[in-house]
Amino acid sequence: MSSWSCRHEVKGICKKVVGAYCRPGMKGCVLVGKVKFEDGTIPPPVWPPEAEPAPGEPEEKPPSR
Ligand code: SF4
C-alpha cells in the first residue's frame, strides 16, 4: 500500500490556499486538473471558523462532522 502527502499540508491546513482546510482537488490546490470529481465541479476552499478567507475567495462553511 502506498500513500501520498502534499508538501503544502500542515496538520490538515493548506498552506497554498492560505489557511483553508486541505481538500485535495479544491480550487487553488496543486491537484486541480489532475483529478476529476463525480459531479464535474471543482470544490471551493473551506476555511476554519477562526480563519479569514483569502482576498477574493468565497467563504464557505466548514463541513459538519
Ligand atoms: S488542498 Fe491541495 S495543495 Fe492544499 S495541502 Fe491539500 S493537497 Fe496540498
Shape call: globular
The figure for the number of domains is 1
Distance between the termini: 27 Å
Calculate the mean pLDDT score and round it. 86
Q: Looking across the biggest beta sheet, what order are the strands in?
A: 1-2-3
Question: Can you walk through the features of this model?
Answer:
- This protein has 65 residues and is mostly loops.
- The chain has one domain.
- It has strands spanning 9-10, 13-14, 20-21.
- A 3-stranded antiparallel sheet has the order 1-2-3, with no helix packed on it.
- Strand 1 (9-10) and strand 2 (13-14) form a beta hairpin.
- The chain is globular and about 35 Å long.
- The N and C termini lie far apart (27 Å).
- Bound molecules: iron/sulfur cluster.
- Residues 6, 8-9, 14, 16-17, 22-24, 26, 29-31 line the site of iron/sulfur cluster.
- Iron/sulfur cluster (SF4) binds at residues 6, 8-9, 14, 16-17, 22-24, 26, 29-31.
List the helices and strands and how they pair.
Blueprint: E1 9-10, E2 13-14, E3 20-21
Antiparallel strand pairs: 1-2, 2-3
The protein binds iron/sulfur cluster.
